[in-house]
Amino acid sequence: MRIVAIDHVQLAMPPGGEADAQAFYEGLLGVPRVPKPPHLARRGGCWFESDSVKVHLGVEDSFRPARKAHPALHVQDLPALVELLRGAGVAVRDDEPLEGYDRVYVDDPFGNRLELLEPRT
Fold this sequence. Notes:
By secondary structure, this protein is of the alpha/beta class. It has helices at residues 18-28, 38-41, 78-87, and strands at residues 9-13, 33-34, 46-49, 54-59, 72-74, 92-93, 101-107, 113-119. The strands form two sheets. The protein has a four-stranded mixed sheet. It has a four-stranded mixed sheet with strand order 5-8-7-6.
């Protein structure tokens, strides 16, 4: 018996933030929004999924952003994404080098920390 993969990452968001989530995760990061199952949709929040990435945002009434804990998302063409994010007013932060990767940190519209990294070739 062993763990073989992560199915999805769930982050919290405040009530009513679906439009902001869609603008960021789908509009800027390029992860398509997919419908939540009907029995879960009534809770609010939204899901973003591609073939290899699944980020679910769930509504939390007493929401507090994850400022330390974070998902790390592999990116193709990190410099282009950084330029797009900065052009949209998203603060992009460099951090200590990580061997074999270029990486930055950003916050989603709710203050949740995300690591964006691209393997060096």
